[in-house]
Amino acid sequence: MTDQPADQWINETLYPDWGQRFRVTRELARVTSPFQEIVVFESESHGGVLVLDGAIQITERDEFVYQEMLAHVPLLSHPLAKNVLIIGAGDGGVLRRVLQHRTVEKAVMVEIDGAVIALSKRFLPSIAGDAWDDSRAEVIVGDGIDYVARAGAESFDVIIVDSTDPIGVGEALFTDAFYADCARILSPDGLIVNQCGVPFMQADELRETSLRRAKFFPHVSAYVAAVPTYVGGFMTLGVAAKGGVPGTVPVETVRARAGRAGILGTTRYWTPEIHVGSFNLPPYIAEALPVGGDVI
Questions:
Q1: Do residues 90 and 139 make contact, with C-beta atoms less than 8 angstroms apart?
Q2: Active-site residue list
Q3: Using N-to-C axis directions, what is the helix angle for 63-77 and 251-261, rounded to 10°?
Q4: Could you state, in chain order, the average pLDDT of each consecutive group of 10 residues for the chain (296 residues)?
Q5: Would you tell me how many other CB atoms lie within 10 Å of the CB of residue 112?
């Protein structure tokens, strides 16, 4: 753990020739786990910030955008999601949003790096809130790929993968074998969602992930969220479904489901209208989807 004076800067190293930097008011932790380097620091403009292997993961200032869209869109695209699997998301923000749905009966979260959970609980407690103590939550420090391979058929309604980009720790979460297992353990109306990068800089990530998922799911699409600290414009969230076509649920149906779940009026980015509109992709993003993808 460190306590660093002001006027220090952290430069994001996600891209070799473009990035952003934050003034560090206080460095809270710098840890090398068995999986990655983890840095947590305070920023005057963004509050607490979590960095993994040089890439900004989440900030207290804008985490609500990413977390709400990653959780509420798939849960409300499903007719009635009761059992949810979260892979990654060690900061607890996705778990918190999933458990805001009173219709969810169980949320299993599998995070490979226990240090991320421990540091988030200590230094970024506002992100997860009281989700860690919810009786519906089962938090496992372990390998999400192994968990999916062993899980029973049709045991989950929604799978949310909140991973790093497909390098290092996150690489195995973007393989054919992983998506085949995900399709097997999802219920007939099941969906899987995972971040597919910023297409302005990472179009290949959306393209390659969508092609892989199309081998195992009849419907493959994506939607977008504008997260300020993910440099390069829209973040894409790739979705694949066994049942209905993602993005075709009417806004009034989304609103009714959100009312039943108890989340109307609790969000800062997601709304029923944003939910539906987020599937209307600019052409430069839609062209990264496979031919025949469900582009609304």
A1: no
A2: 162
A3: 100
A4: 66 91 96 96 96 95 97 98 97 98 98 98 97 98 96 98 63 79 97 94 91 94 95 94 93 98 97 98 91 57
A5: 25
